[in-house]
Amino acid sequence: MKDLHLIENLPQAHELLKPLRISILKELIRPSTCTEIAEKLDLTPQKVNYHIKVMLKAGLVQKVRERQVRGTVEKTYQAAARSYCLSPELVSELGGKRRGRNKVSFDYLLQLALNFQAQLAKLARRSESPPTVGLEANIYLRGMAEREAFLHDVNLAVRRLAEKYGKRDDEPDLADDFDRDFRLVLGCYPDPDIEANKE
Fold first, then answer.
1. Which of 71, 74, 47, 72 lies closest to 63, judged by CA?
2. What's the whole-model pTM score?
3. N or C: which end of the chain has fewer CB within 10 A?
4. Cα 22 from Cα 18, distance rounded (Å)
5. Contact, 104 vs 186, CB < 8 A?
6. Burial classification of residue 56, based on how many CB atoms lie within 10 Å of its CB (0-12 exposed, 13-18 middle, 19 or more buried)
7. If we measure between CA atoms, which residue out of 132, 25, 131, 142 comes closest to residue 82?
């Protein structure tokens, strides 16, 4: 079972985005038969079998075992992944043309986050773990003047890092550039948990 499955096409999304199928997938975090799932969800085995077959064809579920039980074949299934990620590319164009890339706008940060999520999901499909690094910090900005000063300092720091560690124009493209060519994404936003805790 993979940690994450990236859904990149509409047929897969269509087969997944149904409440009953999501409930079945949650039960399939552990290998189970249609009868076992039916008992847990108070459904008929035939109904569970129908939905599992649809998800099996879409690649959302996998068959892990089958055995003969009293003249019938008992099949055991498991979810293809522990979690599922819907690719932003599936819905990115529904709202029409994208607005300008204003780097301090919420829309731009949201698009960055969606792209970040989709790219991490693609990395998760690799057989070996990719080299990554994660950083997190809490910042307290006292008004607009401090926000502007912070943004200025961040821009300077990132520019220095890009100049120091960026690829030079005279460097050749290498076949194994995957472990050398990295992307840095930085976002700063109000902590929604702080507001929730005040309620």
1. 74
2. 0.59
3. C
4. 6
5. no
6. middle
7. 25
**Pick from 64, 30, 26, 33: which is nearest to 48 by CA?**
33
Q: Are strands 61-69 and 72-79 parallel, antiparallel or unpaired?
A: antiparallel
Beta carbons within 8 Å of 144's beta carbon, 6+ residues apart: none
Q: Which helix (H) or strand (E) holds 68?
A: strand 61-69
Q: How far apart are CA 156 and CA 149, in angstroms?
A: 11
Residues 32, 1: Cα–Cα separation, whole Å? 14
| Burial label, 101 (beta-carbon count in 10 A; 0-12, 13-18, 19+) | exposed
For the stretch 75-130, pLDDT in tens is: 999 999 888 877 766 665 444 555 555 666 788 887 788 788 778 877 877 767 78
- How many CA atoms within 13 Å lie on the side-chain side of 62? 10
